[in-house]
Amino acid sequence: MKALVTGSTGYLGSFLVRRLKKEGYEVFESNTKIANLEDTKNLEIYEDVEFDFIFHLAAFTKAGDWCKHNSGTQWITNQIINTNILKYWVEKSPRAKMVCVGTSCSYDPTTPLREDFYECGIPDPDLYYYAHTKRMLLTGLRAIEKQYGLDWVYVIPSTLYGPNFTHDDKHFIFDLARKIYAGKTQKKNISLWGDGFQKRELIHVNDFLDILMQVLDKENDVINIGRGTEFTIMEYAKILCGIVDINHSFVTYDTSKFVGVMSKKLDISKMIRYVGDFSFTPLRTGLVEIVEWLKKEDVKNG
């Protein structure tokens, strides 16, 4: 089996590449250095490869309030890379199944976060333009299915977490862990964004991949992949404080900073129908992995 993975050096991409190789796939990569999707000519290095799967993970975005201040740049870039991979799929590798990763940001927070509502309503204003590039990607898949009859699946993860993240990954759980770890090891002030009562759902990256592998056979379908439970930022902070052995009373909450939506829990009823009972990584176990990774990086960097 041959698979092309776009965004292969990103957090999810790096885990997916290792997982596919472990399962015997021959993996080809596209990232900012190899076959960069901003120009379709860069994909010519795979001109003679017949792919069985194209996993499209590449996206130009960053966590926190970055989307709020870079709406035009990210709209143009994401439209280019999405259009280019879809064009390549149709023209060069139509036998491949296209597997695209969406975003929970595309949901209108006032609607049920269920697949049939994905393209309904208005996404959060601060994430509005990025959210619509992901909605447009799904529209592209449907347009191609209608004209060319190609096969795809579109998955929507809740926030991924686990070890091996980079120092510049600002997703809330990594940022939270860094601040609390630095509060313990460097005696730095621990100031978290918001009042601590905003809720977020996490899914361990390995759990996500286990489930993804089980739904690859679904045809032209949109599937939420999450845990179905959420916790407040304050609850996550208290668990992390316990892991690093620092009193939560040292944590302050800054309500002047970017907060985002107050709740983001996916409806995973479709996923459960497909995969049945699933044994998720215990939350504390996953958070311990994050702290252990920070310790390892501390040692490596001196």
Which features characterize this protein?
302 residues, alpha/beta, Rossmann fold, UDP-galactose 4-epimerase, domain 1, 2 domains, six-stranded parallel beta sheet, two-stranded parallel ribbon, 9 helices, 40% helix, 16% strand, globular
Compute the number of structural domains: 2
| CATH homologous superfamily label of the largest domain | NAD(P)-binding Rossmann-like Domain
How many helical elements?
9
Q: Using DSSP, what is the number of strands?
A: 12
Rg is 19 Å
Q: Any low-confidence stretches, pLDDT <50, length ≥5?
A: none
The CA-CA distance between the termini, in Å, is 42 Å
CATH class of the largest domain: Alpha Beta
- Output the CATH topology of the largest domain: Rossmann fold
Helix content: 40-55%
Describe the structure.
With 302 residues, this protein is an alpha/beta fold. The protein folds into two domains: 2-157, 3-Layer(aba) Sandwich (Rossmann fold); 162-201 and 229-265 and 282-300, UDP-galactose 4-epimerase, domain 1 (Alpha-Beta Complex), CATH 3.90.25. It is built from nine helices and twelve strands. It has a six-stranded parallel beta sheet with strand order 2-1-3-4-5-10, sandwiched between helices. Strand 4 (97-101), helix 4 and strand 5 form a beta-alpha-beta unit. Helix 3 (71-92) runs parallel beside helix 4 (128-148).
